[in-house]
Amino acid sequence: MTSNPTSRPHALLVVEALCKNFGGHQAVDHVSFALQVGAIGGLIGPNGAGKTTLFNCLTGFMQAASGKVLLDGVSIGGRSSSAVFAAGLARTFQIPRPFPEMTVLENVMVAPRGQLGERFWSNWLQPRMVAAQERETMAAARHWLDFVGLSSLEGQPARILSGGQRKLLELARVMVSAPKIVLLDEPGAGVNPALLDQIVDKVHALNAQGTTFLIIEHNMDLVASLCKPVMVMAQGQLLMTGSADEVLNDPRVVEAYLGSPV
Ligand SMILES: Nc1ncnc2c1ncn2[C@@H]1O[C@H](COP(=O)(O)OP(=O)(O)O)[C@@H](O)[C@H]1O
Ligand SMILES: [Mg+2]
Description:
There is one protein chain. Helix content is about 35%, strand content about 25%. It is of the alpha/beta class. The strands form two sheets. Strands 6-7-8-3-9-10 form a six-stranded mixed β-sheet, with helices on both faces. Strands 2-1-4-5 form a four-stranded antiparallel β-sheet, with helices on one face. The chain is globular. The structure holds adenosine-5'-diphosphate and magnesium ion. Magnesium ion binds near residues 51, 52 and 94.
């Protein structure tokens, strides 16, 4: 029997003692955790807890002051955002900003991993390979647009999309790169209930196909229906990790949200 090493249970994302400060303010304070391959991790906590800053440090959009980040056993700490993306860790933004005048399809084709055409030499030396890869990227982009239900809008400028449709567009955009793990920053924010259900379904479906997720979210119904484990951040620190039930009923978590002892 052959065994596929990537499907065996193991920690896909390992974070050790990660720190990030803004001047004297410790926004991320010695955060450590491990997320298993195939998980849909949740990250919750009151506003200002440091969740987005943690995402920024994990994805290379900001450099941490200290600490380690390992993706599939490989250190990605200190790498640029494009290098982290190329390594297989993709993210969406709290407020998606698609290129407004580019079409929906063009927006999804913008950032595939390690596209040959971006490199001058390969462009010059291997035009047929580049053309073949562009065709492949377009096929993948169409596949993911279909998956998120935006195919009928592929020729429209992205500016016409609603907030919820922009979140679906982002999901399609990151899936084109075949990431190992996707970090979603507040996928439910500003999204109407029908589209929210769609987003939940899509995340479930992608997870069933093998994509690992880490999701920042304030909508606790969404967290409870999708996420395990759920990690709670408060004042830059990881307060606790558990099932949605465990963390939402923990007095320390209630206290963190209320900002005062219960
Ligand atoms: N670029 C920045 N410069 C200075 N302070 C920042 C910056 N980004 C975030 N902060 C501060 O760091 C803390 C954590 O913010 P953030 O990570 O956005 O929290 P969350 O996403 O949990 O709401 C807050 O006090 C915020 O004001
Ligand atoms: Mg945030």
